């Protein structure tokens, strides 16, 4: 069925999608597709905080410089400066909405709210709500969204593809409801806030991570993707094979947590002068190397020396979760392991979220703005979500509707693909990505991944020509093709840079590094085996 015509259609209701809805709704009617449960998005699970220049001891130039260093030469300087300069006003906006950031009542506090420090930052500039910042921001924004009369929420629809016209413009999205019925939501402007691609891997820091579905929906319509090879692995996910994914915030190291091996010895000071506060790519590789050297499946993060009062004050969520899993972090070090966490690449956008497809925007982790370069610095992600949501909102407030165009039809199929087969292919894909395209990649491993993914693709592709769409099937279809593009980008980058580390080419290859860009034509070439 066709569900009328919508002015602004936002797909994804994490922090980026919610913030955008609020920015636009006073000027245009907004339709927001978001899961009924906040647990399904990555935003809720963000613990650390939001990076911004707020302290009198900090300044814009320092935040810009730290971000450029972390991005290992691949950041877009214009995007970095734009984002950092918008930071203070963005935090003020959140405060006016009522986000309950943790106050700082100490006598020498230079700012009313507590600021912590995380890896790569040269100053304390991370404002937070205890150790559950994502949850606090999501809940606050959601309350305002639900109260706004010009925002229509849809929790029962899942987007499976975008609607294009014969001019190459985006005209909305095709969705499925819980019963599998197809709905076509035509829209004047469509925004993807669908998250990243950590779900391509077996072990992640989010219980239900996205697998790049929005990225591939955009690519199918002709949008350019960028820097897919830069997948960030958070150094410290709780090692708990029997439990759900759970992140141990970077702020734990920012407040003095130490990484130790099974013998209780620190290993980071020998790797980098910043030790535990080195950027995430360096820490994750060091942990991976330590695990390989000792044959262990984890290392430890030790905060016992901080004392029970400080641990309970700064990390109540982490303390409570670990206690629920039988771990007393006041008296025991925390077992941790790196896990897929954040996609630095995504849909190429400008400073207002516009993609290379007219009337299609992307914000949040689905987008690649150029801010992160080859490695995202801690807590710049929520900042990016908010800054670009507000920037995109300002553009969409005044966007003029275009003349109606006829959307291109969607082929209708007759056969079904069994859920068991879908899960088998998905697990095989994740296994390949986790063993061959993770923290350390080799030429041989990437070749094996490319061959393995091609085999999986040819198992699934023939059935997609005459299939009845389902959410699990279309999600797998998007994920499998994005995995192939990710491997193609990794194989093409003949150097090691940031999150892309290949011991077969261990140094920087170019004095002037370039982002990797890939489009639908490259995807079609891969699928045709050319």
TrEMBL record:
What Pfam families does UniProt report for this protein, alphabetically? Answer: FAD_binding_2, Succ_DH_flav_C
Q: Which reaction does it catalyse?
A: L-aspartate + O2 = iminosuccinate + H2O2
Subcellular localization(s) per the UniProt record = Cytoplasm
Q: Output the Gene Ontology cellular-component terms.
A: cytoplasm
The record places domain FAD-dependent oxidoreductase 2 FAD-binding at 8-382
Show where the Fumarate reductase/succinate dehydrogenase flavoprotein-like C-terminal domain sits. Answer: 426-510
For this protein, the Enzyme Commission number is: 1.4.3.16
Q: Which InterPro entries match?
A: FAD-dep_OxRdtase_2_FAD-bd, FAD/NAD-bd_sf, Fum_R/Succ_DH_flav-like_C_sf, Fum_Rdtase/Succ_DH_flav-like_C, NadB, Succ_DH/fumarate_Rdtase_cat_sf
According to its UniProt record, in which pathway does this protein act? Cofactor biosynthesis; NAD(+) biosynthesis; iminoaspartate from L-aspartate (oxidase route): step 1/1
What biological processes does GO assign it?
A: 'de novo' NAD+ biosynthetic process from L-aspartate
Indicate the family of this protein. Answer: Belongs to the FAD-dependent oxidoreductase 2 family. NadB subfamily.
Outline what the protein does.
Answer: Catalyzes the oxidation of L-aspartate to iminoaspartate.
What is this protein's name? Answer: L-aspartate oxidase
């Amino acid at each position: 069925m066709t569900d009328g015509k919508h002015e602004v259609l936002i797909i994804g209701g994490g922090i980026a999608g919610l913030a955008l809805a609020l920015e636009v709704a006073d000027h245009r009617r907004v339709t927001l597709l978001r899961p009924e449960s906040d647990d399904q998005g990555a935003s809720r699970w963000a613990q650390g905080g939001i990076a911004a220049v707020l302290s009198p001891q900090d300044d814009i130039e320092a935040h810009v410089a730290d971000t450029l260093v972390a991005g290992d030469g691949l950041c877009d300087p214009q995007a970095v400066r734009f984002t950092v300069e918008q930071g203070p006003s963005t935090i003020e906006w959140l405060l006016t909405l009522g986000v309950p950031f943790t106050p700082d009542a100490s006598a020498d506090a230079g700012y009313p709210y507590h600021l912590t420090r995380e890896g790569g930052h040269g100053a304390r500039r991370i404002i937070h709500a205890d150790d559950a910042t994502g949850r606090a921001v999501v809940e606050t924004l959601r309350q305002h969204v639900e109260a706004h009369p010009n925002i229509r929420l849809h929790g029962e629809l899942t987007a499976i593809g975008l609607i294009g016209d014969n001019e190459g413009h985006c005209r909305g999205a095709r969705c499925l409801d819980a019963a599998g019925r197809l709905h076509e939501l035509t829209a004047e402007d469509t925004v993807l806030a669908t998250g990243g691609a950590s779900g391509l891997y077996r072990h992640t820091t989010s219980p239900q991570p996205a697998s790049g579905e929005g990225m591939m929906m955009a690519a199918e319509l002709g949008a350019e993707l960028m820097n897919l090879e830069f997948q960030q692995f958070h150094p410290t996910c709780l090692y708990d094979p029997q439990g759900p994914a759970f992140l141990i915030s970077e702020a734990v190291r920012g407040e003095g947590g130490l990484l130790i091996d099974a013998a209780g010895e620190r290993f980071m000071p020998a790797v980098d002068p910043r030790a535990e506060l080195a950027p995430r790519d360096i820490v994750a590789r060091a942990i991976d190397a330590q695990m390989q050297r000792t044959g262990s499946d984890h290392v430890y993060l030790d905060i016992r020396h901080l004392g029970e009062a400080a641990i309970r004050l700064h990390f109540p969520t982490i303390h409570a979760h670990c206690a629920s899993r039988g771990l007393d972090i006041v008296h025991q070090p925390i077992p941790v392991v790196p896990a897929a966490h954040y996609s630095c690449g995504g849909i190429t956008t400008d400073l207002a979220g516009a993609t290379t497809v007219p009337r299609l925007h992307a914000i949040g982790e689905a987008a690649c703005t150029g801010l992160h370069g080859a490695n995202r610095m801690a807590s710049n992600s929520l900042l990016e979500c908010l800054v670009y949501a507000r920037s995109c909102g300002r553009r969409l407030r005044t966007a003029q509707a275009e003349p109606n165009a006829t959307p291109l039809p969607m082929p209708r199929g007759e056969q079904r693909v069994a859920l068991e087969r879908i899960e088998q292919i998905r697990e095989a894909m994740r296994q390949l990505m986790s063993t061959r395209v993770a923290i350390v990649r080799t030429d041989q491993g990437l070749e094996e991944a490319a061959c393995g993914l091609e085999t999986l693709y040819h198992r699934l592709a023939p059935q997609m020509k005459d299939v009845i769409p389902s959410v699990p099937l279309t999600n797998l279809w998007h994920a499998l093709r994005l995995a192939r593009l990710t491997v193609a980008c990794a194989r093409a980058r003949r150097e090691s840079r940031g999150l892309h580390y290949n011991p077969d080419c261990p140094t920087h290859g170019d004095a002037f590094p370039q982002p990797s860009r890939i489009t639908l034509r490259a995807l079609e070439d891969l699928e045709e085996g050319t």
